[in-house]
Specification:
About 70% of the residues lie in helices and about 0% in strands. It has helices at about 25-45, 55-60, 65-85, 90-110, 120-150.
Length: about 150
């Protein structure tokens, strides 16, 4: 039986930082999350070419806007839930950036660019930050795997 230190780790063992992740637990998940962030960053940047009028100012006439509201609400809710179950700071910050971007997309669709002119810029900034952080998370998995291969 191994002695347990105050940090609940057996003596001689170090804490594996990858075990701190609760959602992005492996390279494949980190890569998929990064790809999603890159795609949504592209969509957010495309939003500069297509200004939003907002459904509150012009009514619910366009069914596309209603569909977008449902999508943004669903995505923001799920990402908010992922923030709440994330364990380590990097993972929690990554999902918080994505959730915030989705929330600004929702607000932009509801209120329009004239009411919230900063929303589009904030979406791009938040998603750009998420892409950088997602790349850092993926790199930490790739670096870890390289260390494991070299140590064997």
């Amino acid at each position: 039986m191994a002695r347990v230190t105050p940090n609940s780790l057996p003596i001689g063992e170090t804490r594996d930082p990858m075990n701190e992740f609760s959602i992005l637990t492996n390279r494949k998940r980190a890569l998929i999350a990064l790809i999603h962030s890159i795609v949504f960053l592209g969509i957010a940047m495309h939003g500069f070419a297509s200004p939003k009028a907002g459904v509150l100012l012009h009514g619910f006439g366009a069914s596309a806007d209603v569909i977008l509201i449902v999508i943004y609400l669903t995505v923001a809710t799920i990402l908010g839930w992922l923030v709440s179950i994330s364990r380590c700071v990097k993972e929690r910050l990554y999902f918080a950036l994505c959730a915030s971007s989705a929330t600004f997309g929702l607000l932009r669709t509801i209120f329009g660019d004239a009411t919230l002119p900063a929303a589009q810029y904030l979406r791009v900034i938040l998603l750009s930050s998420a892409v950088v952080l997602g790349g850092w998370i993926l790199h930490s998995f790739l670096h870890r795997e390289t260390e494991d291969v070299l140590s064997n």
